[in-house]
Amino acid sequence: MGRLVLAEGDKFAPPGVKDFFLPPIFGDVTKPMVLMVLSIVIISAFFLITSRNLKIVPTRWQFAAESVYDFGRNNIAREQIGSKDFKPFVPLILTLFTFVLVNNLYGIIPIIQFPTMARFGFPLAIAVLVVYPVYHYVGFKRHGFVGYLKHATVPPGAPTAIYFLLTPIEFLQKFVLNPVTLAIRVFAAMFAGHLILLVFTLGGEYLLLHAAGPLKPVSLVSWAFAIAMTFLEAFIQVLQAYIFALLSANYIGMALAEDH
């Protein structure tokens, strides 16, 4: 977690934004940076090990890997991009889903207890440097430069006068806001969830160690809420990874679609 000791004397210092800015481990390397690299190692090792000796009747780990792959391939990429065009994008969508998922789940793993996506720079970098160029590139490649601009910003069927208002809005959404909002969704959920867990956990610790006698039992209530919120946070972490991959695939699908 951010700061494990928030009580100074008898005064409780509530957790806040400062707890997401961790001191460097060595040099300029911080814990979130290390966790990012670790997530790549975990995901790579998982798929390499589980696919090393494939069997017709899968083992538990092979079944788990195949389930994750099938979910990314069929439930996200195929549904959002379309059966005609989805295959080249399966590795990308699967990577986005598993990468965001592992970095989200860090938030409920003991000792680690820090969701990497709670630092806005990380999801923003993925959205701007990976998703954004991919879906615009495939759009320009399929429709041509002018054709794609028209495809993305001029929805058919609207009255001519409306296009003076609609086209700038569509351009702003497709070329500016989409990657930002994609990053904000997962960041905001991870930031808020981690902050809530900090409040209940460290608040319970403070009540137990520093509160007056009658208030000490309230610490148990605080910790009970922390446990309940941990399960809810786990669900949200998986959901946000799914939404991130789903929207990424949706943007690619819209860029490739013949109709607006």
From TrEMBL:
SUPFAM superfamilies: F1F0 ATP synthase subunit A. Its main location: membrane. Keywords: ATP synthesis, Cell membrane, CF(0), Hydrogen ion transport, Ion transport, Membrane, Transmembrane, Transmembrane helix, Transport. The keyword Translocase does not apply. The chain crosses the membrane at residues 33-50, 89-114, 120-140, 182-203, 223-247. It is a multi-pass membrane protein. It holds the Pfam family ATP-synt_A. It is found in: Cell membrane; Membrane. Gene3D superfamilies: ATP synthase, F0 complex, subunit A. CDD domains: ATP-synt_Fo_a_6. Belongs to the ATPase A chain family. PANTHER family: ATP SYNTHASE SUBUNIT A. Key component of the proton channel; it plays a direct role in the translocation of protons across the membrane. This is ATP synthase subunit a. It comes from Actinokineospora diospyrosa.
